[in-house]
Amino acid sequence: MKYTRRSFIKTGAIGLGGVLLTHNACSQPPQFHDPYEIVEIGKTGIKTTRLCMGTGIRASGGVSNLTRKGHDASVQLIREIYDKGVRMFDAADSYGTQPIVGDALKIYPRQDFTVFTKIWFATRDAQRLNIEETIARFLKELQMDYIDGVLLHCLTSGNWVTELSDYMEALDVIKQKGIIRAHGVSCHSLDAMKVAVQESWVDTCHCRFNPFGPRMDDVVEKVAPVVSQLHQAGKGVIGMKIYGEGTFANDSEKKNQSLTYVLHTGDVDILDIGMDKISDLTDTEERIRLVPKLKG
Predict the structure, then answer these.
(1) pLDDT (tens digit per residue) in 49-92
(2) Residues pairing with 237 in the sheet
(3) Across the chain, what does the average pLDDT equal?
(4) Which of 24, 78, 130, 166 is most open to solvent, judged by the fewest CB atoms within 10 Å of its CB?
(5) Pairing between strand 51-54 and 147-155?
(6) Interhelix angle for 71-84 vs 98-105, to 10°?
(7) Whole domain around residue 13: which residue ranges?
């Protein structure tokens, strides 16, 4: 069983209680979601926790809330989040967080955590990036000898396969060398996401997804089918903007509704939640544990 936005609202699942109230004394106790459940990202073979720490809050041009917070304080925060159980961390060159993530995680066994990062593809620049040099810099900043996932960041064009073919080819060579385990895209338009469904090069796709529409690529009725198609095509689906990029971060009910909706679609492998303080983690993990698993 999968939830569409319409059935989600109609059944009353929009308040969590609507699902729970369907349970009665004759049925088995409901099973609930675990934020630290180990899941596979599509068909990549990469297995990590359902809940991911996003590091790109209010980010652009190499600056974000974590860089504003200060290097040492952010390193400590990531370690606290790791110690709570999170094993996936999402960075990007444009966030400026790769050195922070690298310093934070260097004390842990490399095989015990997963790191994704993103390349701002610079098609607007006079000179395109040298991908080999860029990945070498990423490895140095992250203090790692391989990166689990590298994405082309913030795609909006429906013609990105042609426009970025040289980047794709270079990343494929790097993947074949074992320096990265997966490559993919972070989509910021529905056209770009539709192309990702059909493109065999795409191992994983970051999708902006929530039931209310803020900071998404279109209304949820149009986005949800494409997310489902990505999942059915075997792509790893990483959900972002689950709280509408903070649009309803202070609305407890909407946060519950969004987590329930996204998990009940069954199409999203990873919940990428932006975190710049420990309460961002503890609040979200508690909410996920209240989301019942659907039967069937």
Answers:
(1) 999 999 999 988 899 999 999 999 999 999 999 999 999 999 99
(2) 205
(3) 91
(4) 24
(5) unpaired
(6) 50
(7) 5-288
